[in-house]
Structure formats: structure tokens, C-alpha cells
Amino acid sequence: TAIISVKGTMIKYGTFCSYGADEIAMQIEEAALHENISSIVLDIDSGGGACNAVSPLCKAIATAKAKGKPVVASCDVAASAAYWMGVKFHEIYADQSENKNESFRLALEGDYTKIRQESLNPMALRFQEEVKEKRKCLKLDTPGILSGKMFYAREAVSVGLIDEIGTLGRAVEVAKELEEMNLINKYINS
Fold first, then answer.
1. Three-state DSSP class for 176?
2. Dmax (CA) of the chain
3. How far apart are CA 41 and CA 75, in angstroms?
4. Contact 154, 162 (CB under 8 A)
5. CA neighbours within 13 Å on the CB side: how many for 153?
6. Alpha-carbon span 119 to 112, nearest angstrom
7. Burial, 87: exposed, middle or buried (Cβ in 10 Å; 0-12, 13-18, 19+)?
8. CA distance 52 to 63
9. What are the pLDDT digits (tens) for 122-160?
């Protein structure tokens, strides 16, 4: 059995840091053609991604199935484009686990109260507290500043969400400046 990883955001073309759908599709097709491989497991952990990432994967899965090689998905998260690949979910719980994923299951039925109270609200409050703690210059009286409003760069600077607008090169300069400041402070305090 070939185990093929489908992790992170699904994109059509790979980067230096991750495989794209084209590369993963090639892995599936190679496994489908290999005489010593009888089945394929897709190890999926993806919140989804680009729609154009789905087609190469679907074609590769179809090729594998046409070659008589079953394709099975093992998922931590398979949402959006990752779910589109045809994964079928079966939720089976032990009799002693009646509350497992309860808020999620209720949300699927249209009752969002429990998921809001148990997951979303605590997560939002933690996020807000950490932003306030880390961004001391934040203008808290700005409408939407901690409630999910989108701020573009110039406005983000003016309300204290970011320090400046710059390039990747500028970020490298700032990192070097901070590194030098840390070295100086370390020398002074030693």
C-alpha cells in the first residue's frame, strides 16, 4: 500500500516548501502503475484550497481505480477542495462517547449554539486578548478592530495592527536590526 500525503492548503503547482496537486497526482499515478503496489491511501489534512487543484487529483484517482488499485482516504481535516475529491465520511462513535463532536454534529443539523459557546467564542476571546497583549499601540476604539473587520495596509498601520508597510527585503532588514539590538542588550546586561 502506498501512503501519499495531501497536507496543507491545496494548490495546483508545488512550491519550494510543499507539493502541489500536480506532484501529488504524479505520485498517485506512479503508485497505480507500480507492480508491487496494490492499493493507495491518501493521508489528508487540508482545509481546502484552489479549485484548479482538484482536477489533477481526481484524474489520478480515476487512473488508479481503472488499474484496479483501490484508493482510500484517511483524513484529519478534509474540507472544501480536499473534500471535493470524493472522500466519503463515516462517523462512528463508541456507546460511551455520546458527547464526542456533539457541537459539530449539532451545527450540521443547523443548531449553532453549542459550537459558538464551546469553540468559537472562547477562541475569539483568546485571539482578542493575545492581540491586545502583543499590540500595545492598538487603537481599541476603532470600530471592528477586534471583531473581524478587514483592514488594508495603510489603515492597519494607522490603527496599530501593523508597524509598517514594506517588502520582504525590508522585513529581512528589520529582523537584522532586531537581532543587532538583542546582541547589544545581551552585551550590556552581561
1. helix
2. 69
3. 10
4. no
5. 4
6. 10
7. middle
8. 18
9. 988 988 998 898 889 999 999 999 998 888 889 989 999
The model's pTM is: 0.51
- Cβ partners under 8 Å of residue 26, min gap 6: 60
In the chain, the N- to C-terminal Cα span, in Å, equals 57
- Answer yes or no: are the C-beta atoms of 48 and 10 closer than 8 Å: yes
Across the strands, what pairs with 40? 2, 71
The alpha carbon of 142 is separated from its chain's Cα centroid by a whole number of angstroms, namely 29
**Strand order in 40-46's β-sheet?**
2-7, 40-46, 71-78
Please tell me the distance from the alpha carbon of residue 182 to that of residue 176, in angstroms, as a whole number: 10
On the CB side of 100, CA atoms within 13 Å amount to: 8
Say if residues 40 and 2 touch (Cβ distance below 8 Å): yes
